[in-house]
Write a structure and sequence with these properties.
single chain, 174 residues, alpha+beta, Aminopeptidase, 4-stranded antiparallel beta sheet, 3-stranded antiparallel beta sheet, 6 helices, 7 strands, globular, acyltransferase activity, transferring groups other than amino-acyl groups, GNAT_dom, transferase
Amino acid sequence: MNLYLKKPSIEDEENYYVYLKEWKDEFIYPTASSYGKNSYQELLKRLELDELNLIDPKTRVPASTYMLIDQSNEIYGFINIRHRLNDDLLLYNGNIGYGIKPSKRLQSYGKLILKLGLEKAKELGLHKVLITCNEENIASRKTIEANHGVLENKIFKTDGYILRYWIDLTKENK
């Protein structure tokens, strides 16, 4: 099966709603569940503005969002790559956030979306990225570590610990 990353487009609208439906009430990252309450066209506009850093340049950073899809255009997940870090991202959220829809979890698609996302981050000129996850999220920890994440530390955030991993994009990670 050939899976790849692409930016969401108007042609993906129907498949996006199929993807969205599977999440039910679960938080959908990185196309947050509140976006699902708006139209797909509003989501596309928001993602475009986000990439140009026109939403709130004082508190946000430019970010590119991609879908992991197959040749039939089924959406497996989304990944968001923040082009730089602000203070909050440096502490808690990092450069990259991703999510795989529930029916495709624990099948190595998380590892794949992160691997492909790291290639996109490198194309964006990033040399090192920070990726974080909740301490209890074992699947996410394994995904980050499988993509050469090196644990720097863990920090407490209101409801538990956040693990902070760095990945050096200048190394040939085999």
